Amino acid sequence: MSILINENTRLLVQGITGNEGSLQTKEMLDFGTNVVGGTTPGKGGSRIFGVPVFDSVEEAVDSVHPNGSVIFVPPGHASDAIFEAIDAGIQLIVCITEGIPVHDMMRICAYMKSTSSRLIGPNCPGITSPGRSKVGIMPNNIHLPGNIGIVSRSGTLTYEIIDLLTKNRIGQSTSIGIGGDPVIGMTFLDALELFEKDKDTQAVVLIGEIGGTAEEEAIGFIKHMSKPVIAYIVGISAPPDRTMGHAGAIVSMGRGTARSKIQAFGDAGIPLARNPNEIIIQINTILKK
Amino acid sequence: MKLYEYAGKEIFSRYGISVPKGSTASSIEEAGKIAGAMGKSVIKAQVLAGGRGKTGGVLFSNNEEEARQAASRILGLTIKGLSVKKVLIEEFKETHAQIYLGITIDRLVRCPVIIASIAGGIDIEETAVNSPEKIIRINIDPLTGLHDYQARKLAISLKINDTKKIIDVIKKLYRIFVDNDCILAEINPLAQTDDGIYALDAKMVIDDNALFRHNYRDEDPDPLSEMAKKNGMSYVGLDGDIGCIVNGAGLAMATLDMIKQRGGESANFMDVRAGANEEQIKTALRIVSSNKKVKGIVVNIFGGLTKCDDVARGIIDILPDMKVPLVVRFAGTNEELGHSMLEKYGVTLAGSTEEAAKAVIRLVNPH
After folding, report:
1. What is the pTM of this model?
2. Residue B221 CB neighbours (<10 A)
């Protein structure tokens, strides 16, 4: 099994005829993802790589019945695209777009509370279940089917770690990039809950970074998980961010730096890796037990 | 993007939040003239950094001569690495109470949070730690906005008279926060004076992602960061001597961390993002090497859509202009091809991020 996506995922690509949208659609098709349609307002009726293009998500839902959507729409229009997907009843929405205003994201997250849709991202690489489906932009050739779940806030660093795992013959059940923006849909906690329930996931690698307290908020859950979680947190060399003023300091109360996160994970007895190689060492120790 | 205090106060004023009468000056003469016409005044450094009061960036004066002296001291200052080029001269206000009022984004709850305290002033963060009961926080639903009862609750909890005026300021500040796509709108202190409630300071930070729908102009851009931004990359200067060029913010941070773990110091953070092609990498190398402190550069690319051979071509093209040694690490799409192209050019090649960190430190500190 895998989480969130599998061979039954019927994917819609919003912004399918744009530069990135079309390039990535080709990659996803090559991976084996079942791309059932795409949207670009004004281009309905055409086809790209054999995939039908629609003017709206609603039309696509009526004719090709997607259950997931991936968004490549430019930042000024991406929040509208997310709303469109939610209103059309799409259950899994993955937004790749970088640069969506945070106020738009706050409104989207508030709106989503009254729906059953789930959002991953924005500003994320998406989600891959090796051998089953890929929704997003992770490189095709780095994955290997297996039993390690990966959840990460970054992009290329995630590829680096997946690649390293694969080179060490350690396969992945599902790899999720939840995105690096301040306000995002799926959180570490949400992903960990899914991995805990997934019978094919034996252990989880959590890749965190400075800013916010999403890593810390997951600690309580990790302590009660039946599966081991290995954390790798980057940003110890980053200068302290003072953008958020006193208000930011009051909200975070001394948390949110790489050091404070590492400290909190260490205090909770959660295994920490200081670099990608240590992740491999830790996993090998766990799998031998 | 951070706004200067005076720019923030202009916005406050436009929305009807009272600020002391004042104007800015870039020279001692100008400052003297403005203050001379005011009587007792306060002269404040205009820099995009906190802690001005503690570093001599805020001085008081009673007449033109004192104002000139104050301005001459402040205009020469460097506060947290930023030189002061402008001062704000304002009428001095005697205060009875100093309130803290700030709105920012609560990432965890994914909505705005308004924070208020009767213990406003420079030690507000200590208050938050030592006397959390003096800090009031209210989360706001971004779809419905701030309700009257919420503003009332905040204002009443501050326990000073003038509740109506405080409610008014809270509502206006929330409007400002939303209308301007702020990630921070802060008044510290919001002062109760003989003639009303005044915002004595203004701190506003606008979401960079939302700048496309506003007309803010960065008045004091860092040239290297600007050049990077124009080319779709992100650059932050640091204090070390190892230049770093990486695709992806997370991998960039991991690279910087590994350099630090092995005793090196990075000169910059640079994320060349997804568009790391031939031209991008040349621009990136130009930007990073224009920092004179840089003694060696590490290029760390994880190719996906980015092809390592494209990056290699860019490096080869600009290599004759490079005066410092390069360490390159490629992984992913066409990594072998990229490495083999660079072999004959005397570029140090590394097999992993860690090896790259080690190699560049050896080159920069040969002893």
Report:
1. 0.93
2. 12
